[in-house]
Amino acid sequence: MTTPAHPGRMLFVNMPVADLDRSKAFFAELGFGFNPKFTDETAACMPVGEHAFVMLLTREKFAEFSKHPMADPTTHALALYSFSVSSRDEVDAVSAAALAAGATEADGAEDYGFMYSRSFFDLDGHGWQVMWMDPAAVEQGPEAYAASSQGNGTPA
After folding, report:
1. Helix and strand totals (H; E) in the chain
2. Is the pLDDT of residue 54 over 90?
3. According to the model, what pLDDT value does residue 156 have?
């Protein structure tokens, strides 16, 4: 394993879904697209970043990769999926689109000044968080950002 991560390293998160077409339609409503080269009747490759992808897999396809029994995401949490957007307003817009497309709200808005998020459960019960973080906090780290701010989320 190269350290630090080499520039071309990719991340794939494999997620089982009950109805692939329904899940694709849901995530399309949130603004995501799919790579047709890696999408078929059993899987859909959803780019979420330059080198990061969520693979929506039918339960049968997921079972081919996992040696463990599948957990029910409506009763067991194995992971929470978070993605960033470019603004606080976009957090609200994506969250509203998710709820309109059939998601269930998990939490109300969480506002930490430097970071703002909303969470929802998708159609299969997987937990998702849409978040925005002030670019200065990303660069400096939250503690340094807080120390350099005037207490209102604005750098000094």
Report:
1. 5, 7
2. yes
3. 43
More confident residue, 2 or 38: 38
Quote the CA–CA distance of 91 and 114 in Å, as a whole number: 14
Closest CA to 105 of 87, 92, 91, 118: 118
Distance CA 42, CA 60 (A): 8
Q: State the pairing for strand pair 52-58/43-49.
A: antiparallel
Q: At what angle do helices 20-29 and 88-100 cross, to 10 degrees?
A: 140
pLDDT of residue 155: 47
Q: Which of 98, 12, 10 is nearest to 54 (CA)?
A: 12
CA–CA separation, 89 vs 132, rounded Å? 9
pLDDT, one tens digit per residue, over 36-49 is 999 999 999 999 99
Q: Which amino acid, residue 41?
A: E
Q: Which of 115, 108, 54 is nearest to 81 (CA)?
A: 54
Alpha-carbon gap, residue 99 to 16, rounded angstroms: 20
Task: Take residue 132 and report the two structure tokens written for it.
Answer: 């925005």
Which DSSP helix (H) or strand (E) runs through 133? strand 127-133
Task: Tell me the C-alpha distance between 6 and 36, whole Å.
Answer: 26
